[in-house]
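Quick one: structure for this chain?
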Amino acid sequence: MDTPALLWRPLEDTTLQCQLCAHFCRIEDGKRGQCGVRENRDGKLYTLSHDKVAALNLDPVEKKPLFHFLPGTTTLSLGTQGCNLACLFCQNASLSQPPRLGANPQGERISPQEIIRQARTSGAASVAYTYSEPTIFFELMRETAILAQEAGLANIMVSNGFQSPQCLDELKNLIQATNIDIKSFREEFYRDICSARLGPVLKNLTHIKKLGWHLEVTTLVIPDLNDSDRELTDIARFVHDELGKDTPWHVSRFHPCHQMQDRPPTPLDTLKRAYDIGRGEGLHHVFVGNVPNSGLENTYCPGCGQKVVERSGFTILRDRLQRGACPGCGQVIIRPENLGPAA
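Got it. Here's what it folds into:
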């Protein structure tokens, strides 16, 4: 049985407006929004993905990627089918895109109570809403997040950042950490490649910072699309100036996927250039992702330059931090409230 949706308003006759994401879809009776999982039935909005979990796994929190939140812990990660964007390079298209093409969301019916039971049994420190776009399964995320907090678990959202302001405000006391994509710093990229807009993402990032969530940012670097010095500099500068120099920026390797299989994987030299640009713009923490053994996944103290956390992929090889602070100069790098139980 499908579930009544939240965050919408009636318009004329049986038409309504969804207020969940920045598309603000106007949906006529019998039709669905752009995400394909929210449907107007006789002037009322329903979610088709509320309890249809299509992916559920225990992951290292570093895989989200979050390097400075509950490091070394695991997170029970879940997602449903569907997305409010249509990125041509989607790295998880079989999960995200079918509902946009008219298919009904598929998945296993798992209640929020069962999700929390599995999280506690597994020893996870958090629940992560991820894999597809958690905005489109907002009702499931919200209900689960409430139960997670009651169970002493943190809540993590991994997102494209295209929520409505109303959505973020509904989640403000429920989410503790998030990783948000900055896919490009050009409106035409978001319009032509993702069927979205850059402006709402940038506004949401600054809003998230004000909400006090732990924030990390990811850019999938795609050859000849968003890998110019100018664009990478613009992204790094925005992160530094608007989100703070301690905000981690993950520059991640693209692999040919979905409708963009005509491009090669991102060269390591390009990712190293992005890393150098981020550091040159004053960011304290830049990480290269999707490249095993790059040597560019470590955390360095911005005060004295010591390597304080050494990583290989999603594994911490050595953690020299003392309650989140550098053992050499004492500078706090990970806030105490963001530390795992083993810190």
